[in-house]
Design goal:
The protein is an alpha/beta fold and about 500 residues long. It is globular. Helix 13 crosses helix 14. It contains 17 helices and 24 strands. The chain folds into 2 domains: about 240 residues, Rossmann fold, CATH 3.40.50.300; about 240 residues, 3-Layer(aba) Sandwich (Rossmann fold). The strands form 6 sheets. It has a 6-stranded mixed sheet, sandwiched between helices. The chain has a 6-stranded mixed sheet with strand order 18-21-22-15-23-24, sandwiched between helices. A 4-stranded antiparallel sheet has the order 2-1-4-5, covered by helices on one side.
Amino acid sequence: MSDVILKMTGIDKRFSGVHALKSVNFELRSGEVHALMGENGAGKSTLMKVLCGIYSLDQGEIELFGKKVKFSSIAESQAAGISIIHQELNMMNHLTVAQNIYIGREPKKGIFIDDRKMERDAKELFDKMGIRIDPSVKLGSLTVGKQQMVEIAKATSHDSRLLVLDEPTAALTLPEVEELFRIMGDLKKRGIGMIYISHRMEEISRISDRVTVMRDGEYIGTVKTSETNKDEIVKMMVGRVIYSEKKEKSAADKDAPVVLEVKNLSSGNLLKDVSFSLKRGEILGFAGLMGAGRTELARAIYGADPFDAGEIFINGEKKRIRSPESAVKNGICYLSEDRKRYGLMLIKSVTDNSVLASLEDYVRLGWIDDNDAAISAAAANEKLRTKTPSMTQLLKNLSGGNQQKVVVARWLMKNSDVFIFDEPTRGIDVGAKSEMYDLMASLAKEGKSIIMISSELSEIQRLSDRVIVMCEGRITADLPIEGLTQEEIMKYATMRDPA
């Protein structure tokens, strides 16, 4: 058995009466990838912030490399050998790769920074890790995956012996995920212990040695990955069994009227002669690899991005949609894959976020009827079972799944007919995913029409009544859900020429 390098025992933490961590235990061994799992709000991030000195613990003990420690800052924990790779990278795009790695500890020649030595040192570091990146290029010119490699290299340059990776693959392509796993394998061989936080079950079973599950701030248990399965882990996380069978047949009425029709839509090299229709009460899944043009299509339909040619029909009537305002007036709403950037006001309340699209509906004699708006917002969120202490709670304090529900509540208040969900479950946990699936199914049952863009093929299979596959800006297939396999979807997702 490998040496234990981290032992957290009986960790307790409270915030203004909220019991965030309740006597939590966690252990990490040298050369181990230990997955830390739980629903959003389970306490995973709080536990890691206690470990790194961002939060002070109220009770409990932390033992690192055989010594009891108590950090009061990230700098202290980093000096002791701990580094965190955040989901949202915390680096400077205007600086070079080498400058980002060695910022604050640059090699000098006299009183001047020795840029050449810094780049040589960075290249030597990359060579050791098998990474091919030019240390002299600006960080902002790299893909998110390459930037993540740079941050991992930066951590190892500090001689870190313990890495915390928080949702590291959330924005990576499949090749970038493979590269990350290769690097993690190399770090394991060097005895570096890694705490791996992720909601992706297939990654956990592939990369981790053990899994620790938390729920509602409590330690539920630790199991060997090789001795458990997805269903057992999910049950530990949510306290119940979640079913994820694929849909066997369409739930949409085959005689339902077409509510949205797109004809011959093109936009430079991004979209090429795209045509499809969407029926009332139908969930139309859009599958494809990254760069296939799915998000570009959604944004064009929503009026967020211009397009060169094509027509859009709503309920059989041709519409000129050239702005999001026009789309909303025509009953189309869009839930972006990057909800924090495009969909939410994190420092505003649940009510403020909910009424954002329909404020004009609550204007009385030139004044907004705040009480009426608040009542309607509360009703919409109650329907969606949004978990919030109050409607005045700031949105930043809600979990990712509940933030997503607030965006849906916004469009329910506007009485939208066509919902475009772009990666609706990205970054939310398995329990919140299940709730989102139920929500989308209930919207369709009520007669709402849904376009769902997802990179998770199991999600496409579970929800879609029909599946459209795209590759390099073109539609390569329009497939019924009956008997549809992931292999068939992938065949068309890599088919450049549908002819």
